[in-house]
Amino acid sequence: MVILRNGEMTERFEHGNLPNSLNMSPSYKKRIPVLFLFLPFLILRCFGAEVPSSPFLGVAYRYADAMLRHGRDVHGPENTGLFLSALDRSTLAPLADRPPAPEGVRESDRVGIIPRPLVGANLHHDQNFLRLLYVLSGLSGKSGYRDAADTELRWFLHNAPSPTTHLLPRGEHMSWNVFTDKPMPGQHSTSAEAKHEFSRPWMLWDRCFELAREPSERFALGLWEHQIANQETGAFDRHTAYWRHAPRDGMDFPRHAGFYIRTWAVAYEHTKNRTMLRAIETVLGRFEKKRHPRTGLIEQYSGRPHAFPALTLSLANDCHAAALLVPEPLASRLRAFVAREDEIFCRLPHDLKGTGGFVTALDKETGKQVAGYTPLWRAGYGSYTTAQVAMMCVSRYENSGKIGYRELITAAADVYLNSMPAENIDAWPMTFGHVISLALAAWRSTSRPVYMDFARKLGNEGVERFWHGSPLPRASLKANHYESITGADTLALALVELHLHILHITAVRCPSNTIDR
């Protein structure tokens, strides 16, 4: 099986299984990935060529093994099998205190009520770690990695949903307290007052429906009934509604609209429940109307004069994925929305050669730039790095083939070739992961060795800076604890991707590293 370049369609095999066409027999199925892995080595040996070295896969395995042995929930009333989202890197045990947050992280988003220790599990923060486990299972032929991920998903979907809304305690504002086995808000509030909010798209819905179909469907319906439909009728539920500034238009941020649309599209594919289509039509229609008739820009949220292009690019990525799963004429509407966004984003005055960044904000009526450009290494809530936006461009390029995106990818990769974080920047592992994946994307589209060489260099740098002294990576360059909110799992996934590229392994595919948006 070759690596699929389609950034969205690769998610169809996100749990690391081979397609049915290669399932020759139940016993042989487990050996196929391992057999394919040795082909590049055998070919190189036969011709007397030197086998390239790669230290990166071992780092990912040690990280995963440490989490399986020490990072799972064996505390509180029930041993849930959930992975803790913060740990002590020295003892590999739960944190007994609350270390200072890495730069750019809001205290309210961490896995613990202020000012208590970080004792939570947040599946949104750990999503790339779960994807990593599925990939390692495919690479090694060992089911233990896949089984651990399945156990977490199955338990959480069956046991953690709200009994009234069926929404899940994860994302930006909630997590699961592994010592009390109860939902936990990450801010100065009670659990009843905390909001359900995605922090990134959820790419594991296919696996969730396979493991727990009914809870997954109830969640998708709850997303419609308690966070959208009640707003359409003017009802207000202070416990579940996500209303920031405009009560009649609560699902208001473009990126969140995309996360919802993707959820409903996958739910429709698995259930054929037409309520999911109505939900997509409602939210898509809202954003179709938001486009300014002259500039085509979409406001950040209702009543705001500014447009943030990265937010609508994120929405476009999810609309593309949804269009593959829903019937006509809705699929055509989604594709038309994406095509318009592609046109707008690629012609914006990005200044990668001059400032190293993408445009961050524009006046929606005039199209004039009203803010600066994306930073290279300084990550944080409410902003994107250049590599983060470039990875959205990677997804769009590999799904559309539009030359404008390819040019933006290579220009962004060029910016990083001679760049490292300054001493005063508390860089995140997530950013290192994005830059590695960006360099690999530039290498795939140009075949220029400079990008592969840089990816290897940055991979070595990332391993040294984040993993030194422990199998668990540090939360940031200036932190010494493990905390997955800053994307250690994104970096680990990038290291596996780098390993596969170095050794030209195509039998087992690494999922696209594009979900941090």
What features would you describe in this structure?
The chain has 16 helices and seven strands. It is mainly alpha-helical and 517 residues long. The chain has a three-stranded antiparallel β-sheet with strand order 2-3-4, with no helix packed on it. A hairpin with a 4-residue loop joins β3 and β4 (182-185). α6 (205-211) packs across α7. The longest helix is centred in the middle third of the chain and has 20 residues, at 213-232. It is globular and about 60 Å long. It starts with 25 loop residues before the first helix and ends in a 15-residue tail after the last helix.
Annotation keywords:
517 residues; mainly alpha; three-stranded antiparallel β-sheet; two-stranded antiparallel sheet; 16 helices; 7 strands; disordered N terminus
